[in-house]
Amino acid sequence: MTDTSTDSTRAGFVALIGEPNAGKSTLTNAMVGAKVSIVTHKVQTTRARIRGVAMEGDSQIVFVDTPGLFRPRRHLDRAMVAAAWSGAADADIIVLLVEAHRGLTDGVQAILDALREREVDPSRVALAINKIDRVPRDKLLGLTAKMTEAFEFSQVFMISAEKGYGVDDLRVWLAERLPKGPWLYPEDQIADLPMRMIAAEITREKLTLRLHQELPYQLTVETENWEERKDGSVKIDQVIYVARDGHKGIALGPRGETIKQISMAAREELAEFVGRKVHLFLQVKVRPGWLEERERYSEIGLDYNDG
């Protein structure tokens, strides 16, 4: 193991910011080499500042996977956007992710304007143009020129987080620019989220994937109980909170088939993640005002007051 007490080690925080669905969670997982952030085709799935820890040589890179930046409407939205900017403010380096096929949208321009308003030093902001496999090369060059004209980025990377293109180059560049100092986490630790919250996020991902348009963001998952059993397995009890009675029926599905499939998919992934057998028990409860409950916010890693 590397001696973390010497001057050769580096460690620091890297915030990934961008519009919803820009690929921040996918990039976090590609960098870390494990699934620490939920990835779905739906926007705004990342609610809390999930940190993934990646090692590159003698450097430890702690990724802050922030919620997507968008124009907030609800209390929950405002808390999510506040969490994103807080994550960026605390980071040593900021990486702005932009989707190659969407380019310099109004949302991206708003983020650039906000970076300037907050007087963020451009030398600590890199641009990662993601999903480059979706557009021709000449369009990429045009977008790069437009983006660098709009903001003085320290470096520009062309990547595909999903396919892995350019990810190694970005990780090496980040590792070389972090402050010198001891590592912040044990070498084998990949995320600073408690296992109970990671388990809840995995189940929420399965719900989001399965329910698609029917039940977008009106649900949350909490791990109520985590019991280590003598045979080495773990028993996990979770509650899915929905806002309306009709939502409960959607989550359960005809004869409970939907929740059964969701439970099976979540259990398989949890077992793979913890490396042992998992007994998962899900309950669906109607809680009309959960979107305004202070306790629910702390459970998913957000500050209620930020909303």
From TrEMBL:
Spans annotated as G1: 18-25
Stretches the record annotates as G4: 130-133
Domain spans labelled KH type-2: 211-288
Subcellular location: Cytoplasm; Cell membrane
One annotated Gene Ontology cellular component of this protein: plasma membrane
Amino-acid positions noted as binding GTP in the UniProt annotation, renumbered to this chain: 18-25, 65-69, 130-133
Superkingdom per UniProt: Bacteria
Chain spans, region G5: 159-161
Family: Belongs to the TRAFAC class TrmE-Era-EngA-EngB-Septin-like GTPase superfamily. Era GTPase family.
HAMAP family, per database record: GTPase_Era (MF_00367)
Protein name as it appears in the record: GTPase Era
